[in-house]
Amino acid sequence: MTTTTPTDSSTLRIALIGAGNVARALGSRWAAAGHQIVIGERSSGSAGRLATQVGKAAATAAPSDAARWADVVLLAVPWADLDDALALAGAADGALSGKVVIDPTNPVAHGDGRHLLEHGSAAENIAVRAPGAHIVKAFNVYPADHWKAATAQDVVALAGDDDVALDTVGRLVRAVGAVPHTVGGLHRARQIEELAGMVIALAFAGIDPRASVPGLSAGDGDVHARDAADSA
Fold it and tell me: In whole angstroms, how far apart are CA 157 and each of 37, 65, 126, 185?
């Protein structure tokens, strides 16, 4: 893995590209934790309403200006709108270069959760189109409203190739009350996206996704892993 220059300040500058539920939920928690928030949205009306909801003097700006100002950029848009969001943020012009970019998108079919990309992941796709950016897959498995009351029982899987970027996103995971866990490099992002797809498929079928995972008591993890490997 490579490393960027650490951000030593206790306050991070975070740009929210998009003004939907994910931006609202995470932005509100991060603002409450003392981080600076700017909403980069093409609609000034939507950006202004979100800034009011986020509070803590959240500001608004053009998406490319917000991206250039920020330490961290959250691409808080649906997968179908990602191309537009990257264009508005100035990704092709280098506006995201050197930035920690969080990808919470899920390129999966509505309802059945089937992954829509033949190869790779949304996160890897973003990395190609945002030269110099440090992409971290995160926050894509739980629904947006969950972040209003996350606890230490909630684990956020991360994938990325930059150690400092992973540390920074881990810090933001803890700021919303959850626990970060890095599963590996960005090549593991598809695995996290497919996990989200399965959660979505089960939920649409009326099944609690948690019921599909065997409960483990303390110390059972290694045994469970060995059993899974033996049956593979």
Answer: 23, 29, 18, 11
Q: What is the model's pLDDT at position 227?
A: 43
Vertex 197 angle, CA 81 and 171, to 5°? 75
At 56 the pLDDT is 74
The model's pLDDT over 80-90, given as tens digits with 9 standing for 90+, comes to 999 999 999 99
> Global pTM?
0.89
DSSP the chain: -B------SSS-EEEEES-SHHHHHHHHHHHHTT-EEEEE-S-HHHHHHHHHHH-TT-EEE-HHHHHHH-SEEEE-S-GGGHHHHHHHTTGGGTTTTT-EEEE----B-TTT--B--SSS-HHHHHHHHSTT-EEEE-S-SS-GGGGGS--TT-EEEEEESBHHHHHHHHHHHHHTT-EEEEEESGGGHHHHHHHHHHHHHHHHTT--GGGGS----TT-HHHHHHHHHHH-
170 within 8 A of 158, measured Cβ to Cβ = yes
Sign of CA dihedral 129, 19, 21, 146: positive
- The string of pLDDT tens digits covering residues 27-61 is 999 999 999 999 998 777 888 888 988 877 799 99
User: What's residue 218's pLDDT?
Assistant: 46
Comparing 29-33, 47-51, 67-71, 123-127, the range with the smallest average pLDDT is 47-51
Query: Per DSSP, what are the bridge partners of residue 46?
Result: none
